[in-house]
Amino acid sequence: MRRKAFGNIVPGAAAFIVAVLGVGLVTGPAWAVNDYEACLTLIEQDPQKALTEAGTWARYGNGGTPARHCYALALLASGAPLSAADELMAAATEEQGLTDNERSRLFVQAGEILLDAGEDLSPAIAAEQAVKLSPNSADAIGLRGAVKLKADDYTGALNDLNRSIKLGGPQANYLTLRASAKRRLGRATAARDDAVWATEIDPASAHAWLERGRAEAAVQDRHNARQSFLKVMDLARGSNIARAAQLALQAMDTGADG
Fold first, then answer.
1. Which helix (H) or strand (E) is 207 found in, with range?
2. Cβ(53)–Cβ(42) under 8 Å?
3. Which of 9, 25, 117, 251 is the most exposed place for a label (fewest CB within 10 A)?
4. Dihedral pair phi/psi, residue 256, rounded to 5°
């Protein structure tokens, strides 16, 4: 796991915890983990030990939201995404002293995990809770857009993603999702523009390159589409997304729909 463990959930979440909830040393019993940075480090070094220690800190060490957040990350690193999401949503509901915006961020993170895990109904519930708590949150609205995209509500997804990008500025993940919505609505040129923009912001995003390749294929730019699909396979070797790029490349070469 990379040092910035939150990056795969919501961009800037680590900074959110540090700046808003506080990190420093928590007084109390001498648990093996009793501050947030030490907890993240332990997740990197030994996820199973981190799961035990972070759980103890969260339940008995008076660590509050930082402890519960790190415990959720330990659950995620240990292969229990649904439990991680449950912990985040429970913290958002139960922890005292959080603002509505902070609670919304926790629901967004939970929703991202649930969406990545392939859940159907629960990501929508998390997204609606996040938007209800923070109606002008770019991340909450972006998550709702992602949920709508997965449900094949392309117009609704596009509306939410347009608003998210207007509120929060361009981010590679939301541009990639918006490109997908536009492509599925038959707006292939606009989709390509968004996907190119996403790869310029985050050249290491395999998802952005995959969507770029699909959009380029849709406008019959086969040369650049091929390069984009090959880029995905280079960035994400052996992964499901690399397989998707390979299939899209094969579909383009055979004239099938990608």
1. helix 206-218
2. yes
3. 25
4. -85, 170
Q: Of 241, 174, 20, 204, nearest to 182 (Cα)? A: 174
Q: Cα–Cα distance between 181 and 149 in angstroms, integer?
A: 7
Q: Which residue has the tokens 């579909």?
A: 251
CA 181 to chain centre: 17
Q: How far is CA 199 from CA 6, 143, 245, in A?
A: 21, 20, 15
Kindly give, in sequence order, each residue whose CB lies less than 8 Å from that of residue 1, ignoring residues fewer than 6 positions away: 43, 44, 47, 77
Per-residue model confidence as pLDDT tens digits over 183-195? 999 999 999 999 9
Yes or no: say if 179 and 192 are a contact pair by the CB < 8 Å rule: yes
Q: How far is CA 180 from CA 116, 176, 206, 257, in A?
A: 16, 6, 14, 15
Q: What is the rounded radius of gyration, in angstroms, for the C-alpha atoms of the chain?
A: 20
- Containing H/E element for 21? none
For the chain, counts of helices (H) and of strands (E): 14, 0
How far apart are alpha carbons 192 and 88 in whole angstroms? Answer: 35
Give the residue among 82, 25, 117 at the shortest CA–CA distance from 90: 82
Pick from 136, 191, 181, 129: nearest CA to 159: 181
- 96 burial via Cβ count (<10 Å: 0-12, 13-18, 19+): exposed
Note whether 82 and 58 are within 8 A (CB): no
Please spell the DSSP secondary structure of 170-196, one letter per residue. --HHHHHHHHHHHHHTT-HHHHHHHHH
201-223 pLDDT, tens digit each: 999 999 999 999 999 999 999 99
At residue 32, the pLDDT reads 62
